[in-house]
Amino acid sequence: MFSKANISGFTLIELMIAVAIVGILASIAYPTYTDHVTRSNRTEGHRELVRIANLQEQHFIDNKSYTTDLKKLGLNASPFITENSHYSISAAVNGATFTLTAVPQGSQASRDACKNLSITHTGRKSASGTGSCWE
Questions:
Q1: What confidence tens digit (pLDDT) does each residue in 97-132 have?
Q2: What is the pTM of this model?
Q3: Where in the chain are the domains?
Q4: Which of 79, 85, 105, 133 is the most buried (most CB within 10 A)?
């Protein structure tokens, strides 16, 4: 007669349970990962705003005025696009004051709750959105 062979492996039910567990873990991990990437990209905006604010101060020392033309600060464009293209930075000047604004670009614009980041001539940092944007 026929004898039952001892076959090792996974049953369909066991495989479906494993797939469900992987799906649950992925649904938890992916939003956390994208949030981390968004916050990491935001540091590029912070860094460039502070750097350009320092360039504005140097321009003020040399020329007794701030400039809206970021090319005069030695940057390659006005508005200036950050290295990884996550932010476009522009300057607004009103007499002896300036405000630099970094506007998120691409996927950063849709994912970042902070929206526009700004820094003034006094070093005051702000954001047009919500959240802890300058931490």
A1: 999 999 999 989 888 889 999 999 999 999 998 878
A2: 0.79
A3: 12-127
A4: 133
